[in-house]
From TrEMBL:
It comes from Aurantimonas endophytica. Keywords: Cell outer membrane, Ion transport, Iron, Iron transport, Membrane, Receptor, Signal, TonB box, Transmembrane, Transmembrane beta strand, Transport. Belongs to the TonB-dependent receptor family. NCBIfam families: TonB-siderophor. InterPro entries: Beta-barrel_TonB, Beta-barrel_TonB_sf, Plug_dom, Plug_dom_sf, TonB-dep_rcpt-like, TonB_sidphr_rcpt. PROSITE patterns: TONB_DEPENDENT_REC_3. This is Iron complex outermembrane receptor protein. The keyword Nucleotide-binding does not apply. Residues 85-187 form the TonB-dependent receptor plug domain. GO terms for cellular component: cell outer membrane. One of its GO terms (molecular function) is siderophore uptake transmembrane transporter activity. Gene3D superfamilies: TonB-dependent receptor, beta-barrel domain, TonB-dependent receptor, plug domain. It is found in: Cell outer membrane. It is a multi-pass membrane protein.
Amino acid sequence: MRNTASISRSSLATAAWLQRLAATTALGLFWTSAAADAQETTIQLETVTIEGAGTASGTSEDGFAADGYVPQATVSATKTDTPLVRVPQSVSVITEQQLEDRNPQSLLETLSYTPGVRIGAYGFDPRFDAFFIRGFPATYTGIFRDGLRQFGNGFATFDIEPYGLGGLSILKGPSAGLYGSSNAGGIVDLRSKRPTTEVFREVETQIGTNDRYQANFDAAGPMNADGTASYRLTGVARDSDTDYPFTPDDRLSIAPAFTWAPDGDTSLTILGELQRSRSGGTAAYVNVDNSVTHVAGGDPSFNDLDQTQGRIGLEFEHRLDDVFTFRQKARYQDLDIYSEYVYAFGGPVNGIVDRGSGVLDQTLGGIVSDSQLQAEFDTGVVGHTLLAGVDASYAEFTNKEGYGTASSLVFAAPRYDAAVAKPDYSVASEQQQRQVGLYVQDEIAIDRLLVTLGGRYDWIRTETAAGVPGDLGDWNEQKDEAFSGRVGLSYLFDSGIAPYVSYSTAFTPNIGTAADGAAFVPTEAEQYEAGVKYEIQGANAFITAAVFDITQENGVFFDVNTETGVNEEVQRGELRSRGFELEGTASLGNGLSLIASYAYTDMEIVEGTETTTGRTLSSTPYHTASVWGDYTIEGGVADGLGFGAGVRYVGKSYGDDENSFENSERFFIDAALHYDIPQLEGARLQVNATNLFDEDSQICSSGFCYREPGRNVIGSVRYRF
């Protein structure tokens, strides 16, 4: 059990939240009464139908409703089929059409045009998909797959293959009221490709910069005459070098899926994946005077990172009657990672760079599940979509590390021909974490007024043992529990404009241990948000704007120790993020599709060390903006020819938490050229380029500097049949 002081703080927080909830509900009832007096008739709101292969609730096989680039609904936002215009939260959606046009090769490239999402804080590093949402690191606590949490800690993070995705949803701000353990800045929900009831087959080959060779295939369709059984099989094989001189980016991936839908009320889907990836243990360069050089700190004879990961899960849904629908999701996931690396001890001294070596073996696996019951009903003029559920997870993490020495480098003329001895394991730890959460959400519609109320209570038990291999010592137990939730109000106008306000909280237990071997305490956060959404009438376009204020306590960050060069997880006291976001998407009838966004983020270290309190968190730019457009010629001699171009702007930021030096602003230009061959239906030629003009810049985080990714060009030939 938690100590008395902890229980008291939890109780007070719950009471305060309930007071806010009661006050907001009273305000909503006042508005409802006024609206009822003003109008005697009920206005029927437009219904959004999500078309696709279908589940019992009508959601598409990938969980989205979209028209080109423009999202209409996603099950990630509320775990129901609520149109995005009715959701009192800022939500960005990356649709399948966007993925096809931009052809991203990593999760970070996929997120690069999303407002409020910061990629590249650690420059080029194929080992991790490290990103921030609204200024908060989301690498470990912000990634979900198919609505279920995806674990992450240390080097053990699941590699994401974009070719296996049918789309992504990015929920901004705390979402713990539905999802439990999650990031304060928001979450990314990855939607796996699903079976289809129509036959679909695709093969693709790619060749690109850094001797990149890749082959993809994707096949789906019915397995029997009546279409009650369907399948999908997606695969990737890649052999590639990278910008770093001795770091590969190789991958083999296979993802089978199966759906059984005997009638319109019942469906069962099985989703699986087995993937093997090979990269490098480091991608860091030697630093000199707050500047990154072109001298690699690693070594080709000792620079490996091998990762094997797998997952298998199920999604079951059954409509009981016109009111009730039952759903259940569950997944087993596991990864095993082994790494060897060499790193530099700071910059050169008298022209010599001293180096150390490291070896690491980590495993991370467990089970996640979510069972829910949804009820849709009316009480008089009040419509309800009521959702109640219980989700649970079990995670097990093991870690062994060892450190040694490596040969020094002559900085002016580095040579990498000396053998590196593998160090013995000297540090070990194990951790088990169990979490159970109960949640309820009611989406209330009264005329044009929409009220969303949600609450959740979590119980977590974390057991940790740390020591040396073969002798971990005693197990320490830590128990935590907390309430989190959300209350939101939206109002829909005839014009398609929907203003909203919301308040939400988050509670996040952290997998992993600090440098002293102790388990991290949970991270807690709260957010105030106000915004407006606009579905432009008569045009396939959607615009959103939001202002927010988030306060987080005890967040966990992944930083480089500037004295030893070793990656470490650290926990910081209190951070506050305030900002503004603007996003617009459009797919017009003339073949033109657009994405445009802007974000302002003020990330303050409210409580840190003596030299960082009151400063701005490093590598967090105040201003970011982006625009991407794609145009395909329809008709005439150039029918099927398309062009795409994008600009990403990253403003100035600080290179360390003391704000002693700055990262300069920079622009990145991306482009695409594609051609659907009219004489060969289903054939497509495409070329995509990121950082087209090879912007050579650095980015510094927590006082250590990294190289930005260079120009990357990929040509592909695809055939659908």
